[in-house]
Amino acid sequence: MSRPRGQSLLVKVKPNARQSSLERREDGSWLAQLKSPPVDGKANAELIALLAREFGCAKSAVEIATGAGARVKRVRIAC
User: Fold this and answer.
1) 50: number of Cβ within 10 Å
2) What is the domain count for the chain?
3) Domain, as residue range, for 36
4) What is the DSSP letter of 59?
5) Measured distance CA(22)–CA(49) in Å, rounded
6) Helix (H) or strand (E) holding 50
7) What backbone torsions phi and psi does residue 34 show, to the nearest 5 degrees?
8) Rounded to two decimals, what is the model's pTM?
9) Which CATH number do you get for residue 21?
10) 8 Å CB contact between 10 and 30
């Protein structure tokens, strides 16, 4: 599976999952299931860490561009 580098991704987030996972959907977007609750930025921090690990980047290379308070987010990965 090809991994986009230096691009924007559309990510749908489902917090409070049993385990964290990341999968690509058929429409090209991503589904992130996160263990963290959507409180005090915990889910966003977990999303950034999950994407950084998946794409082999530093966490500082991952930025939530839009939708920080929403379930659908636009994320930029600069690696």
Assistant:
1) 22
2) 1
3) 7-77
4) G
5) 11
6) helix 42-55
7) -120, 140
8) 0.89
9) 3.30.1200.10
10) yes
pLDDT tens per residue, the chain (79 residues)?
455 557 899 999 999 999 999 999 999 999 999 999 999 999 999 999 999 999 999 999 999 999 999 999 999 999 8
Contacts of 41 (CB under 8 A, 6+ apart): none
For residue 12, the model assigns a pLDDT of 98
Are 78 and 60 within 8 A, CB to CB? no
Separation of alpha carbons 22 and 32, rounded Å: 5
Is residue 10 within 8 A of residue 22, CB to CB? The reply is no
- Order of strands, sheet of 62-66, starting from the edge strand that comes earlier in the sequence: 21-24, 30-33, 7-14, 72-77, 62-66
The number of residues making up the chain comes to 79
| Domain-embedded: residue 2 | no
